[in-house]
Design a protein that fits this description.
This protein is mostly beta strands. 0% of the residues lie in helices and 48% in strands.
Length: 215
């Protein structure tokens, strides 16, 4: 804050008073030239800062700015936060069916993150739903999406807020892949004439085995 103060003889002290909750805190203002004085109000949370200025001269005369009832009619500075939180969403490149999807979110803000949400749309869903998040550290959150029963694309995005500003991530696509069945079989090399031959195979799949055919 800068103010011009002049006197017909000599300016004494120039003090800025700002309201800190219920108390008026003094800030000594230093001279930058013959009439200009400057003082700094400490950084504050979003809201309003009230302040007034008082100066005296070498004879003890005093002046206030605003002149009339400065504590009741102070200057007002509006402190606002126009910086949206930063957001980073980390997901696997792809997953298999019947496999849960773990998502990590890093959210930071110059003030404080007040809320964070994760939305997802599964391979069988018709719209986005929210999923619960757990906080792992000061800036890191974790969400686990349920396993998908069908192959396709899972979509997700996150929204974070600091109470005043909102940031939304881009929509992320995660392919859900249905792998082919796995067959384990040891072939029969020889068998006696006229006897039945047992063919044994073990079959696995990431979703389920629909049918097994022997030809």
């Amino acid at each position: 804050v800068q103010v011009n103060v002049s006197d017909n003889h000599q300016v004494g002290n120039v003090t800025l008073y700002y309201l800190n909750e219920t108390d008026w805190q003094p800030v000594f203002m230093s001279s930058t030239d013959n009439i200009t004085f400057e003082g700094q109000i400490p950084g504050a949370e979003p809201g309003n800062i009230s302040f007034y200025i008082r100066a005296n001269d070498s004879s003890g005369n005093e002046a206030n700015l605003p002149a009339a009832l400065p504590k009741l009619n102070p200057y007002i500075i509006s402190v606002f936060d126009n910086s949206a939180p930063e957001l980073e969403v980390n997901t696997p490149a792809s997953v298999q069916v019947n496999q849960s999807i773990t998502v990590f979110i890093n959210a930071t803000d110059d003030e404080e993150v007040t809320s964070i949400q994760l939305f997802y749309n599964g391979t069988e869903d018709t719209g986005f739903s929210t999923i619960g998040l757990s906080k792992l550290g000061y800036e890191t959150y974790k969400g686990i999406l349920p396993p998908q029963n069908l192959s396709g694309i899972v979509q997700l995005y996150s929204i974070v807020s600091d109470g005043l500003n909102i940031n939304q991530s881009e929509v992320i696509d995660i392919p859900v892949i249905n792998l082919p069945p796995i067959i384990e079989h040891i072939g029969v090399e020889s068998a006696p004439v006229g006897e039945n031959v047992a063919m044994v195979a073990q079959v696995y799949d990431d979703l389920h085995v629909e049918s097994v055919i022997f030809s």
